[in-house]
Design goal:
Blueprint: H1 2-15, H2 23-35, H3 39-52, H4 57-69, H5 73-87, H6 93-105, H7 108-121, H8 128-137, H9 156-171, H10 175-188, H11 194-205, H12 209-222, H13 227-239, H14 245-253, H15 260-272, H16 276-285, H17 288-291, H18 295-307, H19 311-324, H20 326-329
Helix pairs in contact: 2-3, 3-4, 4-5, 5-6, 5-9, 6-7, 6-8, 7-8, 9-10, 10-11, 11-12, 11-13, 12-13, 13-14, 13-15, 15-16, 15-18, 16-18, 18-19
InterPro entries: CellSynth/LPSAsmb/PSIAsmb, TPR-like_helical_dom_sf, TPR_rpt
Keywords: Repeat, TPR repeat
Protein name: Tetratricopeptide repeat-containing protein
Amino acid sequence: MQDVKNSVEGQKRNNLIPFIPDGDFYFTKGVEAFRKKKFEVALKWMNKAVEAVPKDPLYQCQMSIIYTEIGSYHKANQILTDVLQTSGNQYVDCYYLLANNYAHLGLLNDARKYAKSYLDLEPNGDFSEEAKSLIELMEFEDDDEEEDFGPPLEDEDELLIYQETAFYHLEHKEWEKALLVLEEMQTLFPEHKTIKHEYAHALFFDGEKEEAIKMEEDNIQEDPFNLYSHTNLATFYYETNQEAYQLHIRALLNVYPIHEQQKLRIATTLARTGYFEEAYTRFRMLSKAVVKSHISYYRWYSLAAFQLGEIDKANSIWQEGGRKHPVLAHESAPWME
């Protein structure tokens, strides 16, 4: 009897069809995790989908959307650029996704270019209303209107590398290295207006304070409403004990940008200049998923919390920052400096 039973079970095992997951299986799992906002899990599934079918643009586009959700805009843009280069205009949605990412990065000229490219190709597409709204929300100088808005895909890889490098040095307070990269960027990509403000910021903290202040004073004469000039001058004047910093703080207190990077810049500026209550409110409004790649987020948010008596909150923020950014683990908490 036992032999018969073993024989039947053996036949059952032999008749089982092994389940071999394919790209669609991984993709479906990734989408399910994404909808539940489990972004790290979603990214793992989507990576498996891409590994299974490396040339499927749909998988890659979805993976870029996950990177966007966690604030890795440069990585998302790299994927989208690769899709456009390999698939042409087959996946027009990539243009809108690129526009959205560049807007979050504060690269408004690029954002407008890609939004316009999307509308040119899909005037009634799924993202047409979003693209139109994006264009309406962005402000540009008059001379930008004459530019050719075709997507400069051939320069995209190089630009992304420069942006990542400059961002790394700025966040790690490596001012001399940041200046070298930003100088080259100003030559190669003169259309990116934010580069000169990052350059002035690095120049000031590298010790060339008078030159940095003069640069931003000239910039604000040309564009009195520029957010980056106001944040820089507020910081520069405060650090050099000039009361004029309060004028720029008052201007910033009335500004509520739509993009997380710009929101973070205002929050850190308020914390830098002693407006801890206002800074704390702004930090709490930020999407952590977007700004957690910024060391400055943890450094200044924790300080603002500490100054308001939120000691446990401050320690929690600082410890989380140390786990995500090893450089912070080797620093003293900002309130102890």
